[in-house]
């Protein structure tokens, strides 16, 4: 009798169980679960600094505009944070949000494709048909949001006049 090492329908688990989601090469199916927190960030020696207003970025400092959103990957009930700094992804999601036929991306999954490496990396975003979110994901997000405040995670204190700097472990890096 011959048995396969792995079942034919086996797939590696998605997500590290960590707080942050990192897009994988190839196709990624993402469901945005709640509102975005936006701001500006820059990295120095493995430390990220985030501010909620571009006027708080030091003059001459290279920085990126970011969106931080809670997500479910492949309809998993493992809620993670996706920090989006790629203008092509932000633009595509914004266009869907502004389109009357699609609207708020909380109502449907997005297929985000990542190809290439380093400076040759390209992204595409395709909306999937609108579907109701599975109740286990809804429950997981509700429990997650009772314990986590996205603004606090991004900025520690959004009313603070000074930038928030955090030292980040390799496992928590969003890229």
Name its key features:
9-stranded mixed β-sheet; alpha+beta; 175 residues; 9 strands; single chain; 3 helices; globular
Protein described:
The structure is a single chain. The chain has 175 residues and is α+β, with helices and mostly antiparallel strands. The chain has one domain (20-169). It is built from 3 helices and 9 strands; from the N terminus they run ββββββαββααβ. Strands 1, 2, 3, 4, 5, 6, 7, 8 and 9 form a 9-stranded mixed sheet that branches. β7 and β8 (122-127) form a beta hairpin. It starts with 19 loop residues before the first strand and ends in an 8-residue tail after the last strand. Residues 158-163 have low confidence and may be disordered.
Which outline best applies?
globular
Oligomer: single chain
How many helices? The count is: 3
Radius of gyration: 18 Å
Domain count: the total is 1
Helicity, as a percent range: 10-25%
Element-level helix/strand string:
EEEEEEHEEHHE
Distance between the terminal alpha carbons, to the nearest Å?
A: 44 Å
Unreliable parts? 158-163
Share of β-strand residues: 25-35%
Largest sheet: 9 strands, mixed
- Overall mean pLDDT stands at 86
Class inferred from helices and paired strands:
alpha+beta
Number of strands: 9
């Amino acid at each position: 009798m011959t048995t396969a090492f792995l079942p034919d329908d086996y797939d590696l688990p998605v997500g590290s169980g960590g707080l942050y989601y990192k897009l994988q090469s190839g196709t990624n199916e993402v469901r945005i679960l709640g509102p975005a927190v936006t701001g500006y960030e820059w990295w120095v020696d493995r430390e990220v600094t985030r501010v909620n207003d571009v006027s708080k970025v030091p003059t001459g400092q290279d920085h990126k505009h970011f969106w931080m959103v809670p997500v479910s990957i492949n309809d998993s009930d493992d809620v993670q944070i996706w920090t989006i700094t790629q203008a092509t992804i932000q633009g595509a999601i914004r266009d869907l949000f502004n389109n009357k036929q699609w609207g708020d991306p909380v109502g449907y999954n997005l297929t985000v494709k990542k190809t290439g490496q380093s400076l040759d990396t390209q992204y595409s975003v395709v909306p999937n048909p609108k579907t109701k979110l599975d109740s286990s994901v809804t429950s997981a997000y509700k429990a997650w949001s009772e314990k986590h405040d996205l603004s606090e995670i991004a900025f520690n204190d959004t009313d603070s006049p000074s930038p928030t700097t955090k030292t980040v472990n390799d496992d928590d890096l969003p890229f």
